[in-house]
Task: inverse folding
């Protein structure tokens, strides 16, 4: 199991690229292989969810997509995924209006390489836990959080965590009103 301060080991997953809903569009493949060497010089925000075609997962993905530009302004790439394959990702995009032409990568870790490397598999259900892993530009894990399968996460809090990590300064918690906690 990897944790904060560890380097990502080698892995390979297949992703549906941003903006695609079909396996091929305008002569271009919708699929891209992603490894630990992808996106050099960028921070990576991996968010894992249990299964495609589930309501909590869809709500999170839509919200991550809404915040994509803010993540990109912080030199970070959003990568959402589960153990479902890349074809299922595209089918879900076509079936769910909020995921239509999704604006960030959706990867399938079918073999569980990354899921198992990070130690985020629910062994009873055989799926990825609802986990978030922030990796810096040097592929060092800087943040890990894991929720129960049925508890969604707050993408705005993940963005705040990324911002705090990038400052290199201590960061107090923030209240629900957006003010520093007392």
Result:
């Amino acid at each position: 199991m990897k944790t904060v301060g560890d380097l990502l080991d080698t892995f390979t997953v297949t992703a549906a690229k941003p903006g695609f809903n079909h396996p091929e569009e305008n002569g271009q493949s919708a699929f891209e292989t992603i490894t630990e060497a992808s996106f050099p010089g960028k921070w990576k925000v991996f968010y894992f969810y249990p299964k495609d075609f589930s309501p909590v997962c869809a709500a999170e993905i839509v919200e991550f997509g809404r915040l994509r530009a803010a993540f990109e302004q912080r030199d970070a790439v959003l990568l959402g995924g589960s153990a479902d394959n890349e074809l299922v990702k595209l089918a879900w995009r076509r079936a769910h209006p909020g995921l239509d032409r999704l604006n960030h990568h959706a990867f399938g870790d079918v073999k569980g390489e990354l899921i198992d490397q990070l130690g985020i598999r629910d062994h009873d259900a055989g799926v990825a836990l609802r986990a978030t892993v922030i990796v810096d530009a040097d592929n060092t894990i800087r943040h890990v959080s894991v929720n129960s399968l049925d508890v969604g996460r707050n993408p705005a809090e993940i963005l705040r965590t990324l911002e705090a990590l990038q400052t290199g300064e201590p960061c107090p918690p923030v209240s629900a009103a957006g003010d520093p906690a007392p």
About this structure: DSSP finds five helices and eleven strands in the chain.
